[in-house]
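Hi, here's the filled form for the chain we discussed.

Project: internal
Contact: R.S.
Residues: 100
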Amino acid sequence: MAYDPGALHAALAAAVGGDGELVSELRAAFLESALRQHDLMGRSRCDANWVVAASRLKSVAASFNVAGLVTLADDALAGAPGDPVILRKIGQALATFEAE
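And the returned structure, exactly as it came back:
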Protein backbone atom coordinates (compact mmCIF):
# COMPACT_ATOMS: atom_id res chain seq x y z
CA MET A 1 0.00 0.00 0.00
CA ALA A 2 1.36 3.43 -0.92
CA TYR A 3 1.23 6.30 1.50
CA ASP A 4 0.98 9.82 0.18
CA PRO A 5 2.45 12.35 2.60
CA GLY A 6 1.35 15.05 0.19
CA ALA A 7 -2.27 14.23 1.02
CA LEU A 8 -1.59 15.10 4.66
CA HIS A 9 -0.08 18.42 3.66
CA ALA A 10 -2.99 19.15 1.31
CA ALA A 11 -5.55 18.34 3.99
CA LEU A 12 -3.78 20.57 6.49
CA ALA A 13 -3.43 23.40 4.00
CA ALA A 14 -7.12 23.16 3.15
CA ALA A 15 -8.02 23.30 6.84
CA VAL A 16 -5.84 26.27 7.81
CA GLY A 17 -5.28 28.07 4.53
CA GLY A 18 -1.90 29.38 3.50
CA ASP A 19 -0.39 29.59 6.97
CA GLY A 20 2.71 27.49 6.37
CA GLU A 21 3.88 27.77 9.97
CA LEU A 22 0.58 26.40 11.30
CA VAL A 23 0.64 23.59 8.72
CA SER A 24 4.14 22.66 9.92
CA GLU A 25 3.05 22.70 13.57
CA LEU A 26 0.00 20.52 12.89
CA ARG A 27 2.07 18.11 10.82
CA ALA A 28 4.59 17.83 13.65
CA ALA A 29 1.75 17.22 16.13
CA PHE A 30 0.37 14.46 13.89
CA LEU A 31 3.74 12.75 13.59
CA GLU A 32 4.51 13.05 17.30
CA SER A 33 1.20 11.50 18.28
CA ALA A 34 1.28 8.76 15.63
CA LEU A 35 4.87 7.83 16.51
CA ARG A 36 3.98 7.71 20.20
CA GLN A 37 1.08 5.32 19.56
CA HIS A 38 3.26 3.13 17.34
CA ASP A 39 5.86 2.99 20.11
CA LEU A 40 3.20 2.08 22.67
CA MET A 41 1.90 -0.66 20.40
CA GLY A 42 5.40 -2.07 20.14
CA ARG A 43 5.85 -2.03 23.91
CA SER A 44 2.38 -3.30 24.82
CA ARG A 45 2.42 -6.38 27.02
CA CYS A 46 -1.27 -7.10 27.05
CA ASP A 47 -4.13 -7.11 24.58
CA ALA A 48 -5.79 -4.09 26.20
CA ASN A 49 -2.72 -1.88 25.78
CA TRP A 50 -2.44 -2.90 22.14
CA VAL A 51 -6.11 -2.08 21.51
CA VAL A 52 -5.87 1.32 23.23
CA ALA A 53 -2.76 2.35 21.29
CA ALA A 54 -4.11 1.07 17.95
CA SER A 55 -7.43 2.85 18.58
CA ARG A 56 -5.63 6.09 19.36
CA LEU A 57 -3.49 5.71 16.24
CA LYS A 58 -6.66 5.23 14.21
CA SER A 59 -8.20 8.35 15.75
CA VAL A 60 -5.13 10.46 15.05
CA ALA A 61 -4.95 9.21 11.47
CA ALA A 62 -8.66 9.82 10.92
CA SER A 63 -8.43 13.31 12.43
CA PHE A 64 -5.77 14.19 9.87
CA ASN A 65 -7.49 12.31 7.02
CA VAL A 66 -4.63 9.82 6.53
CA ALA A 67 -6.67 6.96 5.11
CA GLY A 68 -3.80 4.49 4.65
CA LEU A 69 -2.83 4.75 8.30
CA VAL A 70 -6.47 4.35 9.35
CA THR A 71 -6.53 1.10 7.38
CA LEU A 72 -3.35 -0.13 9.08
CA ALA A 73 -4.78 0.73 12.51
CA ASP A 74 -7.93 -1.20 11.59
CA ASP A 75 -5.74 -4.14 10.56
CA ALA A 76 -3.99 -3.95 13.94
CA LEU A 77 -7.32 -3.95 15.76
CA ALA A 78 -8.61 -6.89 13.75
CA GLY A 79 -5.42 -8.92 14.01
CA ALA A 80 -3.37 -10.41 16.80
CA PRO A 81 -2.01 -8.01 19.40
CA GLY A 82 1.74 -7.57 19.02
CA ASP A 83 1.74 -8.62 15.35
CA PRO A 84 5.25 -7.71 14.12
CA VAL A 85 4.11 -7.51 10.50
CA ILE A 86 1.56 -4.79 11.18
CA LEU A 87 4.01 -2.96 13.44
CA ARG A 88 6.55 -2.96 10.62
CA LYS A 89 3.96 -1.71 8.11
CA ILE A 90 2.92 1.11 10.43
CA GLY A 91 6.55 1.99 11.04
CA GLN A 92 7.22 2.10 7.30
CA ALA A 93 4.20 4.32 6.73
CA LEU A 94 5.29 6.72 9.45
CA ALA A 95 8.84 6.78 8.06
CA THR A 96 7.34 7.93 4.76
CA PHE A 97 5.70 10.86 6.52
CA GLU A 98 8.87 11.68 8.45
CA ALA A 99 10.95 11.70 5.26
CA GLU A 100 8.80 14.34 3.58
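Let me know if anything looks off before we file it.
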